[in-house]
Structure to design on (470 residues):
């Protein structure tokens, strides 16, 4: 409990309930204009365009990105992955996390200010709100206005557009799991599936609530990133900071001829802040480094003829008069690990093969000695081919010393969507069982080769019971 909170607690009237949580007032940020505002607009338009447009793009007749859960196929930029590709997905997620760590150690919370989904959709919802209700002072005036025709039309129109935009967001999210060219027409003709409709409405409602109502509350109370980001900060990490030595003591903007620092107490830096903090009170964990306060302060400095930079991107070392160090132990460490993760991901991609198969011995029978003297072992072959085309495969098998085994069937066809399970039998010659140089259990290599594409092949080892007596 802070000193102020403690004093308030001690001065409260007897019997008055103590509130453990104070409901915050709704923040109505003012629109900022400047170079960083333009960067946020570019980032928002680019990211939203990518999100809404990606499900419609195709590659060789297949969606460019589609997570086909019923068929356990994940189509990502022309690469088809199956559940057996979990190491590849793990490497991709690890690389994404390391990229965020490296980026944070270098430039602070720029991810939060420019690319976080909560920030991007909140920015879009604010644009819609400003179109219906005006800028900050008009919205504040509307908040206190009675519910009359004008307020009903403005608020009602805003929420209708918010709801439609949220529904589009939910449908676009589901379009990453159900092809967009099937999902949207099925919605229009009323044939959309129950689960697709449920998740579209669910994510649409979540977008409407998070970006329209909760906004900064998500950043303050729900996002874990703000809690552990300080572990990646050092004295050279870029942050948004107020130059206290230059700005203090603050002038009173209403008192002409007042003396003091460059800060004129216009509070524009607070009015444009989407999380409602005063950057002049120092670095706070709620700050998302969007630089709206930098744009607002720079415009004020321009109007009074003072140099820009009263509020700026800086670091603790720069504020202390030391040079900014881009290469330092922390960033070098993150960089080395990040490069190693990139190399690992590229290696997995280079080694990735659409063809996989496993061979399991039939546990119900050890082996069979045929009338011809041959020894037969039965196996179950499980094939996984991420290609959407039909393929013809040829099987072959041999012992470690190079001796071949007869295999049946020798060829088979696998069609996309089939289970890919087949029963095969391997037979060794009559001399195997009576050969004293053979072990009772031998290793046999089974090779699967694509008939149409001979370069596509895979090999697995299995145990073969020879029946030989040691």
């Amino acid at each position: 409990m802070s000193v102020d909170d403690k004093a308030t607690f001690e001065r409260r009237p007897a019997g008055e309930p103590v509130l453990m949580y104070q409901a915050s007032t709704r923040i109505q940020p003012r629109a900022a204009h400047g170079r960083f505002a333009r960067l946020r607009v570019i980032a928002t338009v680019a990211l939203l365009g990518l999100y809404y447009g990606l499900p419609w793009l195709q590659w060789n007749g297949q969606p460019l990105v589609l997570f086909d859960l019923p068929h356990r196929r994940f189509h990502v930029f022309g690469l088809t992955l199956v559940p057996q590709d979990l190491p590849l997905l793990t490497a991709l997620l690890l690389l994404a996390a390391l990229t965020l760590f490296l980026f944070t150690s270098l430039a602070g919370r720029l991810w939060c200010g420019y690319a976080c989904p909560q920030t991007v959709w909140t920015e879009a919802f604010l644009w819609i709100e400003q179109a219906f209700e005006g800028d900050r002072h008009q919205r504040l005036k509307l908040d206190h206005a009675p519910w009359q025709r004008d307020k009903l039309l403005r608020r009602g129109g805003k929420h209708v557009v918010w709801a439609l935009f949220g529904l589009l967001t939910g449908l676009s999210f589901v379009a990453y799991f159900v092809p967009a060219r099937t999902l949207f027409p099925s919605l229009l003709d009323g044939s959309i599936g129950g689960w697709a409709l449920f998740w579209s409405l669910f994510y649409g409602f979540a977008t409407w609530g998070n970006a329209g109502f909760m906004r900064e509350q998500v950043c303050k109370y729900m996002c874990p990133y703000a809690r552990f980001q300080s572990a990646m900060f050092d004295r050279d990490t870029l942050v948004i900071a107020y130059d206290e030595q230059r700005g203090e003591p603050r002038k009173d903007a209403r008192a002409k001829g007042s003396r003091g620092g460059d800060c004129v107490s216009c509070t524009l830096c607070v009015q444009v802040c989407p999380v409602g903090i005063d950057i002049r009170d120092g670095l706070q964990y709620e700050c998302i480094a969007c630089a709206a306060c930098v744009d607002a302060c720079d415009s004020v400095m321009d109007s009074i003829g003072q140099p820009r930079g009263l509020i700026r991107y800086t670091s603790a070392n720069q504020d202390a008069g030391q040079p900014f160090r881009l290469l330092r132990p922390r960033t070098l460490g993150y960089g080395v690990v990040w490069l190693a993760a990139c190399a690992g991901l590229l290696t997995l991609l280079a080694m990735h093969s659409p063809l996989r198969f496993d061979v399991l011995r039939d546990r119900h029978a050890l082996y069979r000695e045929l009338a011809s003297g041959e020894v037969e072992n039965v196996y179950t072959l499980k094939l996984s081919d991420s290609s959407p085309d039909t393929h013809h495969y040829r099987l072959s098998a041999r012992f470690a010393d190079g001796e071949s085994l007869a295999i049946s069937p020798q060829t088979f066809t696998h069609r996309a969507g089939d289970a890919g399970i087949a029963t095969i039998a391997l037979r060794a010659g009559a001399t195997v069982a009576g050969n004293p140089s053979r072990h009772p259990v031998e290793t046999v290599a089974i090779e699967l080769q694509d008939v149409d594409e001979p370069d596509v092949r895979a090999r697995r080892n299995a145990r073969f019971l020879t029946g030989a007596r040691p």
About this structure: The longest strand covers residues 375-385.
